[in-house]
Structures are given as C-alpha cells and as structure tokens.
Design brief:
Pfam families: SRP54, SRP54_N. By secondary structure, the protein is of the alpha/beta class. Helices cover 48% and strands 12% of the residues. The longest helix has 24 residues. The protein binds guanosine-5'-triphosphate.
Length: 349
C-alpha cells in the first residue's frame, strides 16, 4: 500500500505543484537560465548536416536542473521577496501569513545567492512550523456517548466526512450512532444513510421537516441505551438565514445537554478547501454560531488552494483533525504537518 504521503503528494501534485513551480519562476526565472545557442561554426561552412538533428532545447524543469550539475542561483533581493509574497498570496495563504512567511524566508538569506530548492525547502519548513501546533486528531474521550456535532455549509463535505470518520472509529473498535440532523433535506438524509451502510453504522433519521433537536434527543437516548462510544450529529448548513441556523444549533445543544451537561464534546467544522479564502469567512461565522472545537478540511485533492489551511492555522489556531483527499471511505487522513507542507510546495519524499 502506498504511504499516505505518496498518495497525498500524488493527489495534490495535480494542481498544487503550481506553488512549487511559481517559486521556481520567482527564484530562477527561465530567462536567466537559458544558455545562448552555440554560435554558428565559422570554420566548417560546407560540413554536411549532423546525422541526427539536435533536439529542440526544452525548458529545464526543476528535475532537469537537478539532474544537471548546478541549480541556478540568484541573489535574494527585494524583487524576490515581493515575488514570493505574491506567490504565497495566490496560493491562498492569506495576506498577513504570506507576508510573514516570506519575511521569515528572507531572513538570513537577503543578499545571498539562493536556489529554488533551498527556497522550496525553507517554505516547507515555515509552513510545517505554523501547522505543527494545530495538527491534532480528534480526541477520543472516556464519556459515553462522546457527542460530536458536525457543522459546516451545505456541500462542504459534512456527510462524507461523517461517513469516513464513522468508518475509522468502527475500525478502531468503537460503536457509533449517527443522527441525520439536516431533516429539511431528504437527499441529505438519504446520502447519510448510504454512508452509514458503508461504514456499518446505524443512522437515525426523522421525518422530513421535523425538529432536528428532537431527533438529536432521540439519538442521544438510543446511543445511551446501547452504550455507544460515539454519537455523531449531522446538522443543516444553510447560512442564508443565520439566525435560524444559530437557533437550530443552539436548540440541539440545549436538548442534548439535558442528558449530558458536558455535551457536545466536540463541534467539528467541515470546510471545503476549494473555496479558498471563503473558508476563512466560514470559520469566523461558525465560531460565532457554534462552539467550534476543531476543523476538518475536505477536497484537498485536486485543488491549488490548499494554502488556505496555513492561513486558517495561523489565524485561528483551531485544531485541524483530519483532511479529506477524495470521495472514497478511506480518503480521510490524519493531518501530518510535514507531509502536508512538502506536498503543498511540491517536494518529493
Ligand atoms: N474530491 C473530494 N470530494 C469530496 C471530499 N469530501 C466530500 N467530497 C464531495 O463533495 C460533495 C459534497 O459532499 P457532502 O458530504 O454531500 O457535503 P455536505 O456538507 O454533507 O453537503 P449537503 O449534503 O449538501 O449538506 C460530494 O460530491 C462528495 O463526494 C474530498 O475530500 N475530496
């Protein structure tokens, strides 16, 4: 089985190599690497053409340069600093974080000749340093049931993430109950049932349009009666009417607290990486309407916007429990800051 890193790297490579390539362009613009074509030979004007025509000069990529002897180096100057800032902002790292990260990379390098690889490595180290403190799996507690409220806008990947998490908890020997708390959307409930089947976990549902809080209460009763280890509650994600959503979530919290005053033990906010900076706004909103305790970022496969995770870590310091890298049940992985940082900047291994 390929290591998770190679899987992450392969999936993020599709698009996030853009960041690595952009760094290469800033540090060693192709123009300065080009070697002039050989001057036409004066001494042999009548020499017949060479048997095999020379291949067209191709642009040396990083690999090509590494295979050759020396990587091009260029002095770290103001233009390079600005270029780096722009590249990081374009990668969705957020303005503040980008400026600070670029400044940190510049420190000790200003006026020195640097190579693209050195800058990629330095960036990976900076990113990993920011991510390290927030990379924490969702804690498993002795409380039974441990109640996990899952919030996030529609389409962010809540249902999929609940299914993937339930499957992982099951594999770890835990018993899980899921409550389909988005009672207003029949399709959402059906989707959750499908995921419940895949994960081998019961999904409690309620008639369309019924009160999600009363479903949460019933689910709590069942989870307690069955001695379940975890109760995961899906919720609606309609942000159009924030006041309603807030009331709905706080009602769910109120009723489950009647049974366990310490619940919910975790409130996971699921964010879609492809929304880029919008994810920052979503954290701000959901922190106001729910007591968010940790994040899961989905759809990191095939997006060039993974840098937003760095911005989130830097800005909010909320734990990042896991990342989604695909639509299948096993495509949720623990968040490893170093692997992520290296995959983000396009470093192999
Ligand atoms: N590529 C990719 N797709 C994902 C990932 N996580 C979820 N998806 C897809 O994103 C879409 C939305 O996911 P859902 O889990 O239905 O999202 P939701 O937040 O529950 O949305 P609603 O059901 O509308 O409330 C689905 O097509 C999923 O297959 C991921 O990590 N990678």
């Amino acid at each position: 089985m390929p290591s998770f890193f190679s899987k992450l790297r392969a999936r993020m490579t599709r698009s996030s190599d853009k960041l690595g390539e952009a760094i290469d362009t800033v540090v060693a613009p192709p123009a300065i690497e080009e070697t002039p074509p050989p001057a036409p030979s004066a001494e042999a004007p009548h020499t017949p053409p060479a048997p095999a025509p020379a291949p067209a000069p191709s642009k040396p990529g990083l690999l090509g340069r590494l295979m050759g002897r020396e990587e091009p180096r260029r002095e770290f100057d103001d233009a390079m600093l600005e270029g780096l800032e722009e590249v990081l902002i374009a990668a969705d790292m957020g303005v503040e974080t980008s400026l600070r990260v670029a400044a940190n990379i510049a420190e000790g390098r200003f006026g020195r000749r640097v190579s693209p690889t050195e800058i990629r490595e330095a960036l990976a180290a900076e990113v990993a340093r920011i991510l390290e403190p927030v990379a924490r799996p969702m804690p498993l507690l002795p409380q039974r049931p441990q109640v996990v409220l899952v919030v996030g806008v529609n389409g962010s990947g809540k249902t999929t993430t609940i299914g993937k998490l339930a499957s992982q908890f099951r594999a770890a020997g835990k018993t899980v109950v899921i409550a389909a708390g988005d009672t207003f959307r029949a399709a959402a409930v059906e989707q959750l049932q499908v995921w419940g089947q895949r994960a081998g976990v019961p999904v409690m549902t309620a008639p369309e349009g019924s009160d999600p809080a009363s479903l949460a209460y019933d689910a709590m009763t069942r989870a307690e009666a069955e001695g379940a280890d975890l109760l995961m509650i899906d919720t609606a994600g309609r942000l159009q009417n924030r006041a309603d959503l807030m009331e709905e979530l706080s009602k769910i919290v109120r009723v489950i607290r009647k049974k366990d005053p310490s619940a919910p033990h975790n409130t996971l906010l699921v964010l879609d990486a492809t929304t880029g900076q919008n994810a920052v706004a979503q954290v701000e909103i959901f922190r106001r309407i729910a007591d968010v305790s940790g994040l899961v970022m989905t759809k990191l496969d095939g997006t060039a916007r993974g840098g937003v995770l760095v911005a989130l870590a830097d800005k909010f310091g909320l734990p990042i429990h896991a990342i989604g890298v695909g639509e299948q049940i096993n495509d949720l992985s623990p968040f490893d800051p170093e692997d992520f940082a290296r995959a983000l900047v396009g470093i192999d291994g």
